[in-house]
Design brief:
486 residues, alpha/beta, 4-stranded parallel sheet, 17 helices
Length: 486
């Protein structure tokens, strides 16, 4: 058993080395193509500064920019993310890097240079990155055999994770699901027969015992963090004593961080309003022309310190779509959506007026998505920790918007938002802004709002399939009720 696990660990380490080599090779090829583009098109006799060893510095700056932008857009996640997502990530990164590089070369040349070679370079880069992503993903799946995984769950809703992971059979294969109520010994017996273990929503004491067992026996383990885990991870490590300590302040951002974040918000708003104002004027005219109703849709939302404000959106639905103030999520073919509304919702332009909310100070560019007042009250009853999201200002985009879905549960949104709060940095904000561009190119899914009953049935069928204790108890209770009815 030990030798078998050792081989798995070694294979995993080799895979990591190969992926790093692949990433470096791709960067090197793109930099070489840039160098020859520069040499042929921009290294003219009228640019004497280019004739020295400065060309090495130019190439070095280019490859550093590429590495940074690929990293910040999650462009190296070959095999982990869908190939289409990686390609889009790299294409966005290439566009940003080539635009910055064009400005750099123009500054050095003290004039606006011919942009056509840079556009051609970008086209070639698109082809190269497409080929690289396809090839590296193909190699990843040839090397990586999907794991024979055991899921250990606590609550019934925890098994929903299996249905999510089933959508990536190239990476995850959960072959058995078992409740923690089966007991520690039974779980350990199952764990050693699987390549990996997933621990989801299991009580802390038994979770720790299972984790220690897996760690001792070198079993790959995935753990879905609880709220307290995320808070602890954001704590400050203190090494003043021989006993390790973590300091958790629980104050959200400190004053310096809030000042820098606000300054960046204002600068980005002023930049965004340059192309944004003309576009907003066109959209406003189109909305007014269609049904002569109000241009903006205003709604009370909750931001930092539970303060309420009116969020602005372009109206995309008919007037009085929510007559009683009751929130009814729109579906893909909702008749309440106007013709203009379908376009601005698909392109996310309906969110554009929130730049004014950011400029006013009600929101930030990045942060937990501000919830409606009634939703905040409802979720807080069910999840007392939900108010922790209000330790920072609400944002136009954030962790939950990028890594979650439209129908992500309130608890999962809370976990994602706390991960942002506890790991905040300016670099993280920039990364999330770049990744938001990718999200804008993806269709927003509203699947799941009307399928709660189906999900409950899927959970029950799954647990019954694996004969878990909970399924047996529920089946017995159902049978008892049936007999009493008869």
């Amino acid at each position: 058993m030990e030798e078998h696990n050792r081989k798995k660990i070694d294979a995993s380490d080799l895979k990591g080395v190969i992926r790093k080599f692949e990433g470096f090779a791709e960067l090197l090829v793109l930099t070489i193509v840039y160098y020859f583009t520069w040499k042929v098109n921009y290294r003219g006799d009228d640019n004497p500064f280019y004739w020295g060893n400065g060309k090495i510095a130019l190439a070095f700056v280019y490859i550093i920019l590429l590495f940074t932008m690929f990293y910040m857009s999650d462009g190296y996640q070959y095999g982990h993310r869908k190939i289409s997502e990686i390609i889009i990530s790299q294409w966005i990164a290439v566009c940003i890097v080539n635009f910055i590089t064009y400005l750099q070369l123009s500054l050095i040349g003290n004039k606006l240079l011919n942009i056509v070679p840079m556009l051609l370079l970008t086209g070639v880069d698109f082809v190269l990155t497409f080929g690289s992503c396809w090839m590296f993903t193909f190699f990843y799946h040839r090397m990586y055999v999907p794991k024979d995984m055991l899921m250990i769950y606590g609550t019934e809703k925890a098994v929903d994770l299996k249905f999510k992971m089933d959508k990536r059979p190239d990476k995850y294969v959960i072959t058995k699901v078992v409740s923690y109520e089966e007991g520690y010994k039974a779980i350990c017996k199952e764990a050693v027969q699987h390549d990996a273990v997933i621990i989801n929503d299991v009580p802390a004491e038994i979770r720790n015992d299972i984790l220690k067992y897996c760690y001792t026996n070198e079993i790959r383990t995935y753990i879905v963090p609880k709220i307290s885990d995320i808070i602890q991870r954001g704590g400050e490590e203190i090494n003043l004593f021989d006993t390790p300590l973590y300091l958790v302040k629980g104050k959200g951002l400190n004053p310096a961080q809030r000042f820098v974040k606000r300054a960046i918000d204002i600068v980005l708003c002023l930049i965004a309003l340059i192309p944004g104002l003309p576009l907003m004027a066109i959209v406003a005219a189109a909305i007014k022309h269609e049904d002569h109703g109000p241009v903006f849709y205003r709604q009370k939302r909750v931001t930092r310190n539970a303060k309420t404000f009116e969020i602005l959106k372009f109206r995309s639905m008919i007037v009085d779509a929510e007559k009683n103030g009751k929130s009814i999520p729109a579906t893909d073919h909702d008749p309440r959506i106007t013709k203009v509304g379908r376009i601005i919702r698909a392109t996310r332009i309906d969110e554009l007026p929130q730049i004014l909310n950011i400029l006013k100070g009600d929101m930030s560019w990045v942060g937990p998505r501000p919830e409606r007042v009634e939703h905040m009250e409802e979720y807080s009853k069910e999840i007392p920790e939900f108010f922790l999201r209000t330790k920072v200002k609400g944002g136009l985009t954030g962790y939950a918007q990028i890594y979650g879905k439209y129908n992500t549960s309130a608890y999962d949104k809370l976990r994602l938002d706390l991960m942002y709060i506890e790991n905040y940095s300016v670099v993280l904000d920039l990364k999330l802004l770049i990744m938001t561009v990718q999200i804008m190119l993806k269709k927003e899914s509203t699947e799941g709002f009307d399928k709660a009953g189906e999900m409950e049935k899927k959970r029950f069928d799954l647990m019954q399939q694996y004969g878990t204790t909970k399924a047996k108890d529920e089946a017995a209770a159902t049978e008892e009720i049936r007999k009493e009815t008869i």
